[in-house]
Structure formats: C-alpha cells, structure tokens
Specification:
Helix content: over 70%
Order of helices and strands: HHH
Oligomer: single chain
Number of domains: 1
Number of strands: 0
Radius of gyration: 14 Å
Mean pLDDT: 96
Number of helices: 3
Low-confidence stretches: none
Structural class: mainly alpha
Largest sheet: none
Strand content: under 5%
C-alpha cells in the first residue's frame, strides 16, 4: 500500500473531526460556537480532497453532507452574532 499526500490530507481531516468531537464531549468546545462548525467543515473538506484521488461513493456522500451541515452551522453562528 502506498501512502500519498492526499492520504495525509484525508488523515488530517479525520483527526480534526474526531478531535473536535472529543472536545465537544469533554465540554472544551461549544457545539453552537463558530470553532466547532469551522473545524468540522475543514475536516470534511480535507477528506473530500483525499476522495478526489481515491473515490468512494459512501464516504463522499457522508463528507459532502458533513461539509454542507458545517457551512450551515457557520452561517447560523454568524447570524446569531449579527456578523
């Protein structure tokens, strides 16, 4: 098995999503805060980049949905802050 740069980017995405979820469970981050949605969105985007080179339909669907939901969360947070 070869390990490519896009695998590394995908692994960064996985780590971001998992660490953000862990931080949420440990009450270190607010689920309604901007950081939560931004980090999740960046993580999903990193995984989508890796999927552009090693495509998997199921993974693409979940990550695309994760990214869209994260963008929605960022928009809601900005509206709450009147930005």
């Amino acid at each position: 098995m070869e390990y490519h740069w896009y695998d590394f980017i995908g692994n960064i995405g996985v780590a971001l999503i998992l660490l953000t979820y862990l931080a949420l469970q440990l009450d270190k981050i607010d689920a309604k805060g901007l950081a939560y949605s931004l980090i999740n969105g960046i993580g999903a985007l990193c995984i989508l980049i890796s999927l552009a080179y090693a495509f998997n339909m199921s993974a693409f669907i979940i990550e695309a949905a994760w990214l869209l939901i994260s963008i929605f969360g960022v928009i809601l947070t900005m509206r709450r802050r009147n930005i």
